[in-house]
């Protein structure tokens, strides 16, 4: 037909529809754009917008729909889908509500499913509390979307129940479905199981979540968006551990078409995790590149700047990191509080506690918060700057006074936080010896609650060192001892299980024991002595040695060891040493007498006689003794020891 009449409108429309049915959206859009004179927006607006939508040209599709002169039902359906992809959830919700209200056909269930998906997206990404739309959860898609909305509200246990219900609905629906492949079943169940694993991760059950995530990845689903989300969640579980597994999972987030399947916040979270992973794997250039790209896309977002500062800290450039954070705080005052908290943490890590305190005190919206006051007082106390700590208390108390004066007229009881700050300030001053300064705080507290005995006691204690007369006057307000007495059973208290002292119960005394108790109460009972054991060779006829308890050397009859006759001091001591009589044994020193040998057992030399045996014919002095010792050793060895 087109060969005969190339501008035939009906033939061109049929060709475009056939190309769309075959999935050739680019070719179909080319046909529409080539014949713009014939195929005007009134004639083929829906087909053109649909091709642009499927080619992910969402902005162009929106313009095409809005330029159509007549808004048909199918254009409104497509308009709702386009708004959802553009994340304009409020407009999308209004469009679907209008469609459901003004149409009655077999597609009503699909429209309700889309409406519940919009509500879930609002709850998850915009933290909007959804209205009760009265949607009956008759299908597994509606149950799944309801579970997603509950996750956005933080109702995790309820969301898990909804997901299990959605799984049961899907398995039941398989009975009535035909020509459903196993891959289709696994793909649908993978989406539900992925959301279950996410709930487990949020609940802190990371091991169960990781196991379920890995099971889904092993199935190799064709949905690249699902795989990217699961891979990203596994990376968040790994953190700075198991970085090699995280590097593998990053490849799944880079698959083609992922950017068209996920929302902007999901894609942003994936990019943040990529930058953090680059930091953990010491890829400094890659980390800086990713964080700079994120900052250019979202100039007011905190995370890119924090990642850059963390990378600088890893490179030991703390001063540069603080400067970077300071610049961001100056440019974006709305986010300055969180940035300054990070700067203070860096200063503390460097040991500059005083500078950290100055940064914290510059955060005006947090100065009066109890947590901030507590942190500043602790830090100043660590630096022994008590005056600054008291000043922090004073400023916080004044802020609450001004706030209360601006909110109400006339006298009104102070808030619990205000009174708590006054009490903490008083206790701090008393602890550091500032009793005069603590008196005004204690008086304020007692004025608010005159029945508070503890505060009154503190006030009297403080006045006793400053103004004793005032302390006496105040002491009259203390309750009397009669009112303070407590009805306590002392015996029951002493005999209780937790008592440190338990009174012993007196035993019954009868007969002789009673007389002994009355007459000889101070006499101690004698213990029986055990009979000592006698030695085996004890002879009762022989009188024992009275000195038997003394060591042998200390006994009167001890004469010492008998020395060997031929034993001499020669040879004693270390090798080469000489004894005291060695000079007397040297024959060369006596010129008048002939050479003689020393007499065994004596230290002095003996005069020469004619009967003296020459030294060469004498026996060695120590020979007999050595022989005896060797024999003794052999005898001992033969016994085999004790």
Provide a descriptive summary of the structure in words.
This is Signal recognition particle subunit SRP72. Residues 58-113 form a coiled coil. Belongs to the SRP72 family. The chain is mostly helical. Helix content is 61%, strand content 0%. The protein has 30 helices and no strands. The protein has helices spanning 9-21, 25-34, 41-54, 58-67, 73-85, 89-102, 108-125, 140-152, 156-173, 182-202, 206-218, 224-238, 243-253, 258-261, 264-280, 284-297, 302-314, 318-331, 336-350, 353-361, 370-382, 386-407, 416-431, 435-448, 453-466, 468-475, 481-484, 490-494, 512-519, 623-639. The longest helix is centred in the middle third of the chain and has 22 residues, at 386-407.
In short:
Helix content is 61%, strand content 0%.
What are the key terms here?
642 residues; 61% helix; disordered C terminus
């Amino acid at each position: 037909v087109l060969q005969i009449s190339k501008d035939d409108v009906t033939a061109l429309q049929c060709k475009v529809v056939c190309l769309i049915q075959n999935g050739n959206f680019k070719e179909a859009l080319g046909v529409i754009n080539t014949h713009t004179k014939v195929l005007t927006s009134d004639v083929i607006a829906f087909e053109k917008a649909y091709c642009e939508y499927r080619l992910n040209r969402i902005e162009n599709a929106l313009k095409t729909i809005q330029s159509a002169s007549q808004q048909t039902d199918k254009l409104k359906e497509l308009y709702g889908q386009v708004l959802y992809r553009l994340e304009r959830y409020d407009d999308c919700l209004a469009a679907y509500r209008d469609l459901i209200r003004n149409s009655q056909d077999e597609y009503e269930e699909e429209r309700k499913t889309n409406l519940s998906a919009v509500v879930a997206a609002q709850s998850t990404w915009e933290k909007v509390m959804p209205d009760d739309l009265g949607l009956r959860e008759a299908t597994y898609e509606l149950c799944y979307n309801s579970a997603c909305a509950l996750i956005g509200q933080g109702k995790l246990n309820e969301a898990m129940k909804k997901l299990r219900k959605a799984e049961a609905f899907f398995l039941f629906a398989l009975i009535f479905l035909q020509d459903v492949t196993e891959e289709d079943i696994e793909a649908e169940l993978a989406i539900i199981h992925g959301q279950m694993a996410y709930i487990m991760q949020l609940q802190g059950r990371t091991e169960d979540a990781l196991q379920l995530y890995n099971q889904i990845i092993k199935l190799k689903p064709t949905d690249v968006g699902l795989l990217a989300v699961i891979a990203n969640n596994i990376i968040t579980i790994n953190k700075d551990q198991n970085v090699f597994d995280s590097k593998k999972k990053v490849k799944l987030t880079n698959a083609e078409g992922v950017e068209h399947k996920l929302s902007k916040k999901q894609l942003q979270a994936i990019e943040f995790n990529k930058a953090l992973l680059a930091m953990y794997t010491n890829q400094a250039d890659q980390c800086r590149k990713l964080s700079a790209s994120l900052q250019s896309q979202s100039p007011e977002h905190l995370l890119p700047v924090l990642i850059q500062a963390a990378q600088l800290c890893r490179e030991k450039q703390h001063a540069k990191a603080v400067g970077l954070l300071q610049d961001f705080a100056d440019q974006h005052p709305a986010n300055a509080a969180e940035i300054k908290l990070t700067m203070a943490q860096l200063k503390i890590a460097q040991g500059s506690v005083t500078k950290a305190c100055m940064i914290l005190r510059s955060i005006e919206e947090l100065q009066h918060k109890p947590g901030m006051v507590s942190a500043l007082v602790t830090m100043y106390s660590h630096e022994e700057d008590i005056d600054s700590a008291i000043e922090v208390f004073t400023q916080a108390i004044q802020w609450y006074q001004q706030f209360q004066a601006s909110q109400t007229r006339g006298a009104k009881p102070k808030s619990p936080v205000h009174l708590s700050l006054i009490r903490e300030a008083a206790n701090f001053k008393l602890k550091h010896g500032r009793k005069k300064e603590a008196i005004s705080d204690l008086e304020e507290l007692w004025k608010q609650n005159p029945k508070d005995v503890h505060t009154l006691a503190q006030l009297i204690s403080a006045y006793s060192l400053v103004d004793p007369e005032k302390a006496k006057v105040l002491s009259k307000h203390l309750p009397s001892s009669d009112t303070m007495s407590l009805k306590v059973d002392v015996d029951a208290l002493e005999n209780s299980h937790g008592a440190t002292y338990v009174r012993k119960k007196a035993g019954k005394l009868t007969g002789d024991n009673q007389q002994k108790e009355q007459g000889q109460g101070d006499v101690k009972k004698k213990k029986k002595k055990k009979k000592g054991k006698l030695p085996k060779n004890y002879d009762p006829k022989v009188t024992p040695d009275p000195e038997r308890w003394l060591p042998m050397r200390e006994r009167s009859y001890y004469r010492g060891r008998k020395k060997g006759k031929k034993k001499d001091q020669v040879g004693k001591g270390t090798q080469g040493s000489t004894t005291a009589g060695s000079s007397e044994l040297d024959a060369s020193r006596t010129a008048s007498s002939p050479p003689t040998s020393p007499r065994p057992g004596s230290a002095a030399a003996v005069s020469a006689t004619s009967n003296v045996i020459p030294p060469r014919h004498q026996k060695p002095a120590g020979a007999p003794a050595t022989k005896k010792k060797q024999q003794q050793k052999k005898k001992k060895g033969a016994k085999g020891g004790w």
